[in-house]
Amino acid sequence: MMIKQHILYHAVAFLVVAIWGSTFVFTKLLLLGGFTPAQIFTLRFIIAYVMLLVFCLWRGIRWVADTWKDELLMVGLGISGGSLYFLAENGAMNYTTTTNTSLIVCLCPLFASALIGLFYKSQRLNRTQIIGTLMAAAGVIVVVMNGHFVLHLSPIGDTLAFVACLCWAVYSLLMIPANARYDTIFVTRKVFFYGLLSMIPYFLIYPGLNTHLLVGQPAMLWNLLFLGCVASTLCFLAWNWAMKKLGAVIVTNYVYFNPVTTILFAWLILSEPITIYFLLGTVLILIGMYLSDKHS
Predict the structure, then answer these.
(1) Would you state the pLDDT for residue 113?
(2) Whole-model pTM above 0.85?
């Protein structure tokens, strides 16, 4: 039974990353339809928050954390895993290449492992796990570079990508005490709430959500609903739950699969070719993930 539960936790983490890897298609269609990255993020988080709020009101809601320090912890989660992460990641692509952004952001497990290890001795990686996570990181580099080992450096864009990377590492760190004290639904609802609240300064400068673009455009509406209901609500709930069961370090390592699932969806939907570098990188990631889960 324990083995089956362990497999389930890993399967959930992989499924979430697979879904997140598919979101580039839906986001790209919305961008082509006239939405900005900030508007897409805000609309999908509004949908996710309303869904969780309705469920919590029906089940019985808890509005605030036990202490003001815990409430500040929720604020940190909303900013690091919500507004600042998405703004930094999307902003990076305005200044640097998609390859640079993808490569830097998908290496966040390295930063998360190091950061968490500084604060939690029990979650520090052993030698086998270190080798595994480095091997998985090498696999990501092979997949993303796809045989073209040329990086076009852009100080602003690459810095923003690193900010996004560090944001997700901080989010993973903060989830440890949050998961220890509160249930997954409460924490996830707070992430959406403070993620939206922290976007207010942005919209004071760049007002408007362009919701009129959805009128008479059912395909765009369905794309947005998928991002809000599935990629945000269900995936954040599942990801935070898997973190609670497996630990932040192990689950964060699944981010390494993000470029793999993205390329697979590009192959299925956009008929982009699968290269030998993709296969080699995927093998490295699989072996690395297997080793990174070895506790002894």
Answers:
(1) 84
(2) no
